[in-house]
Design brief:
Keywords: Repeat, TPR repeat, Transferase, Ubl conjugation pathway. This protein is an all-alpha fold. It has one domain (27-162): Serine Threonine Protein Phosphatase 5, Tetratricopeptide repeat. Helices cover 78% and strands 0% of the residues. The chain contains nine helices and no strands. The protein has helices at residues 3-10, 13-19, 27-39, 43-56, 61-73, 77-90, 95-107, 111-127, 135-163. Helix 3 runs parallel beside helix 5 (61-73) and helix 8 packs antiparallel against helix 9. The radius of gyration is 19 Å and the shape is elongated.
Length: 164
């Protein structure tokens, strides 16, 4: 049994990182802990684990995209963008990094950028025959709808200005 499984099985999630010596775990074990904390909706501790994994091995794109997802959940979009950028520098085909960057753009009202990133993620998923169900396409639809609403509002404002 791996160290993290035996430790994780009896510790409450809120105290686990406090009791773990994160410096002694391998980068892979740290990623696994980060995944468990994320699954338990403990994004702050997941970020801590992914950050330690990055310190141990900063050349793994997945660590950055995993931490980016945590930052998206925490609405820390600047940090999420930075991690997506780094993940894509390391692996230009990291579709999750494109997807999370698209989610950030969407949350910030940057709909054209969101559609571009999300479409790239969708195309990468198709090329690699990975099935994300309707996850990516549903977010693309939301981004397109929001862009449509934004353009409609802009047009209405222009019509009002012409009438004055």
């Amino acid at each position: 049994m791996r160290r993290y499984e035996s430790v994780y099985s009896f510790m409450p999630a809120q105290d686990e990182t406090a009791r773990l010596d994160l410096t002694r775990l391998s980068h892979s074990e740290l990623k696994d802990y980060g995944n468990k904390f994320f699954a338990a909706s403990d994004c702050w501790r997941a970020v801590e684990c992914y950050s330690h994994a990055i310190k141990k091995n900063g050349s793994v794109s997945t660590y950055y995209s995993n931490r980016a997802l945590c930052y998206v959940q925490l609405k820390q979009y600047d940090k999420a963008f930075a991690d997506c950028r780094r993940a894509l520098e390391l692996d230009p085909s990291n579709l999750k990094a494109f997807f999370f960057a698209g989610q950030c753009h969407l949350a910030l009202g940057q709909y054209d950028e969101a559609i571009t990133k999300l479409t790239t993620a969708h195309n990468l998923a198709l090329e690699s025959h990975r099935n994300f169900g309707d996850d990516i396409t549903s977010v693309i639809r939301v981004a397109k709808w929001k862009r449509f609403e934004q353009l409609n509002e802009k047009r209405r404002q222009q019509e009002i200005e012409l009438q004055v």
